[in-house]
Amino acid sequence: MRLLITTPTGVVVDRDDVVSVRAEDPTGSFGILGGHADFVTALRSSIVGWRQRDAEVGYCAVRRGVLTVTAGRTVAVATREAIFDADVARLADTVRDWFHVAAEADRAARSETMRLQVMAVRQIMKYLRPEPPGPPGAGP
């Protein structure tokens, strides 16, 4: 089988001696062998692993992406960011960092959204309930 992992800036992995591939989507981890039916799934930020004909293994951390299987012979992963490394422990740290950064970005986005919603409600309330006029005889 051929395994192709690409980012917008280039090809990270291009192997044509792959026997099996392991990846992870939102439903969990799964494996692909040669002859697999055509398949498309969205990947989580995770580690894609594979075994080659010579029994060597390879690993690549991907920051989400789309995995496709075509004609049972080609497994392609398109992702925004990928890091190839023989040290799976180092890749696991990278994926943990990605999850941490994503969680912080989500928290900041929720906070900003809430701030904008409160400002909008205050503005609406200002027009629905105008300030009462001051006491008679008081200046502007």
Which helices and strands, and how do they pair?
Blueprint: E1 2-7, E2 10-15, E3 18-25, E4 28-33, E5 39-43, E6 46-52, E7 57-62, E8 65-70, E9 74-78, E10 82-84, H1 88-128
Tell me briefly what this model is.
The chain is an alpha+beta fold. Helix content is 29%, strand content 41%.
General description of the model:
This protein is α+β, with helices and mostly antiparallel strands. It has a domain at 2-92: ATP Synthase, domain 1 (Sandwich). Helix content is 29%, strand content 41%. It is built from 1 helix and 10 strands. The strands form 2 sheets. It has a 5-stranded mixed sheet, with no helix packed on it. Strands 4-3-6-7-10 form a 5-stranded antiparallel sheet, with helices on one face. Strand 3 (18-25) and strand 4 (28-33) form a beta hairpin. It is elongated. The mean pLDDT is 88.
Secondary-structure-based class equals: alpha+beta
Strand order within the widest beta sheet: 2-1-9-8-5
- Look up the CATH topology of the domain at 2-92: ATP Synthase, domain 1
Our count of helices gives: 1
CATH superfamily of the domain at 2-92: F0F1 ATP synthase delta/epsilon subunit, N-terminal
Kindly provide the radius of gyration, computed on alpha-carbon positions and rounded to a whole number of angstroms: 25 Å
What is the strand content?
A: 35-45%
Question: Can you summarize the main beta sheet?
Answer: 5 strands, mixed
According to DSSP, the number of beta strands is: 10
Query: Roughly how many Å apart are the termini?
Result: 81 Å
Shape estimate? elongated
Mean pLDDT: 88
Order of helices and strands: EEEEEEEEEEH
